[in-house]
Specification:
With about 110 residues, the protein is mainly alpha-helical. The protein contains five helices and two strands; from the N terminus they run ααααββα.
Length: about 110
């Protein structure tokens, strides 16, 4: 599977529109989690895998490659980190995280 990039057909769309490429990329298993974890700070491969409990090394390697080709993640001195575009994307996700906290506060407590 190729990295979804603007101007190319992606899963669910042949239009090449940038939003469709972004939705395809972020809709892949673990992509958003990896971005969110790297928003917390740089991480080595092993650290990132530990932060993303249950993520296999092969899937992590694949997703990191896709996110690097999309110019959202790079390798820095401290390990993997977000690029300026990756940081911007994470910042734009913050309102969604705030909404999720509000939503969670309105739901009944889970049964044990």
């Amino acid at each position: 599977m190729t990295t979804p990039l603007p101007g190319q057909p992606v899963r669910g769309s042949t239009s090449g529109r940038p939003i469709m490429a972004l939705l395809d990329l972020l809709g892949r298993r673990w992509s958003l989690r990896i971005l969110w974890e790297l928003h917390q700070g740089p991480a080595t491969f092993r650290d990132l895998q530990a932060r993303c409990e249950g993520l296999s090394p092969s899937v992590l390697n694949t997703r990191l490659g896709e996110l690097r080709r999309a110019l959202l993640v790079e390798i820095g001195e401290s390990g993997y980190c977000l690029t300026a575009d990756g940081e911007e994307l994470a910042r734009r996700c913050l309102p969604l995280a705030e909404w999720a906290e509000h939503w969670a506060s309105r739901l009944p407590a889970p049964e044990k």
